[in-house]
Specification:
Elements (H helix, E strand, L loop, with lengths): L1 H16 L31 H13 L1 H22 L4 E12 L15 E14 L5 H67 L5 H35 L4 H5 L9 H4 L13 H4 L1 H21 L5 E12 L11 E10 L5 H69 L5 H35 L14
Antiparallel strand pairs: 1-2, 2-3, 3-4
Helix pairs in contact: 2-4, 3-4, 4-5, 4-9, 4-11, 9-10, 10-11
């Protein structure tokens, strides 16, 4: 049994002496550029004061961001709780008791001993577990990493909120533009129906041309109703992102200039990754710190292999008479030390180490997934940043050509060289081209937003996160 005990203690010591590295695993990363873009407030590059005001409001009022801030407060409180274990536990106490001893039968009290006695005590009690193996220091470091991780998680929410507000704003502008084009088209269709009605009444055209014009007007009226719904939905979505009240979400109101959908400046971003891509993404830094904390908790679990050494002490005074409580002879004190070494519970310690190791392995997978997703975001955003501009140029060219085609088709119809159906066909194509041009212009702006978000824009990645 003695040999077995020594063997178990030796094995536990070897296991406890192992230190887990906290650095993240190496990854095969793509080549980055050598530039440092200023993306802390990327939305100001659009030169749209309405957009800037909306994002500033969201960063101050958004409820998701408010919840992330409370999680930082929780992590800071938890860090302080864990940190407290490194210090001695000191308590002050006062007790008063009155008791009576039995004198019946064979119970005989010593001479002069009263059957009824008082006991008054006041003093300090202290206990402290020596952190010889770094268990509490490592646990505190892990809690500190958790706190820093929640701060990076807060900044992740900040970047998402800024991007989503910009996306919602540009979608709202696009839906406004769609509604404006459809209202103009509906007005033209209404005038066309009136004209065709007059021509029908005069016997110039047949009922087919009149019915066709009326059908086209009804189709556009239906599209107008859909566009009105989209405007309303985009307004309520933006109100939620801004953290406005339920009444303001139900009755959203936003002042905006429709001309901004065409006149707003679209920033140009380099088509490559910045040199410090991993540092710019707050979600990656969040994952790194959670991985470091998970590794440190393995060392905390391993420290249980070693004996725990505790020191205790007490100092105070005790007296049977209250007025003598603080006299010199009433002083009492004690000191002590204790050592506890797990023996039968070593298997439980091993199980706990295995648990923390498995949790760390899961965190490694999450870290790899986070980095993978970050570079996918950057890849897709940089690709869209170029292709959406090409699509906008093509759609603009198509709309211009169809505008000329409509003028020619109208002249041909009025001269009697073609049927009215030819004019309607070109009108339908032009309306579609106008709608697609609006969508393409919106997509260019959304692509810029996605690039800024994918590259970690929207926060000061050098100074936003501080220690406890």
């Amino acid at each position: 049994m003695r040999k077995l005990t020594l063997t178990m203690l030796f094995a536990a010591a070897l296991a406890g002496c192992t230190t887990t590295p906290i650095a993240p695993p190496p990854l095969d990363l793509p080549k980055t550029g050598a530039y440092d873009p200023a993306l802390e407030r990327w939305w100001t590059a659009f030169n749209d004061p309405v957009l800037t005001a909306l994002i500033d409001e969201a960063l101050a009022q958004n409820l998701d961001l408010a919840a992330a801030i409370t999680r930082v407060d929780q992590a800071r409180a938890q860090y302080k709780i864990v940190q407290f274990a490194q210090y001695p536990d000191v308590n002050v106490g006062a007790n008063a008791a009155r008791s009576r001893q039995s004198t019946v039968g064979n119970i005989v009290l010593p001479p002069g001993t009263p059957a009824i006695a008082n006991d008054f005590r006041v003093g300090l009690n202290a206990s402290y577990e020596l952190d010889l193996w770094g268990k509490y220091r490592t646990a505190t470091a892990a809690a500190q990493n958790d706190l820093l991780a929640t701060q990076y998680a807060r900044e992740t929410v900040r970047t998402v909120v800024a991007a989503e507000v910009a996306r919602a704003y540009f979608r709202l502008l696009a839906s406004d533009a769609q509604l404006s084009v459809l209202n103009d088209t509906l007005r033209i269709r209404t005038e066309t129906v009136s004209l065709q009605q007059d021509r029908f009444d005069a016997g110039v055209i047949g009922e087919f041309d009149l019915a066709t014009a009326q059908a086209e007007r009804a189709a556009v009226a239906s599209d107008v109703a859909v566009a009105v719904r989209l405007v309303s939905e985009n307004q309520s979505a933006l109100a939620v992102l801004l953290g406005r009240s339920p009444r303001e979400v139900f009755e959203p109101k936003f002042d905006r200039d429709l001309r901004m959908v065409w006149l707003v400046t679209v920033p140009t971003l380099p088509p490559e990754l910045p040199s410090d891509m991993l540092s710019r993404r707050p979600d990656i830094r969040d994952a790194e710190l959670r991985l470091a904390a998970a590794n440190q908790r393995i060392d905390v679990a391993r420290a249980d292999y070693f004996p725990s050494i505790s020191l205790t002490g007490a100092f105070g005074s005790e007296s049977g008479v209250l007025k003598s409580l603080f006299s010199g002879p009433a002083m009492i004190w004690s000191i002590g030390a204790g050592l506890i070494q797990p023996l039968v519970g070593l298997a439980l310690v091993t199980d706990n180490v295995e648990l923390k190791t498995a949790q760390r392995d899961e965190t490694v997978v999450f870290y790899r997934q986070t980095v993978q997703a970050a570079f996918r975001d950057a890849h897709d955003a940089l690709t869209a940043n170029q292709t959406t501009r090409d699509a906008l140029a093509a759609q603009t060219e198509r709309k211009d050509f169809l505008q000329k085609s409509l003028e020619l088709a109208d002249l041909r119809y009025r001269a009697g060289y073609s049927a009215y159906i030819e004019v309607l066909d070109v009108q339908r194509q032009l309306l579609q081209a106008q709608s697609l041009q609006i969508v393409a212009a919106r997509n260019v702006r959304l692509a810029v937003v996605d690039v800024a978000k994918a590259l970690g824009g929207g926060w000061d990645y050098k100074t936003a996160v501080a220690g406890p």
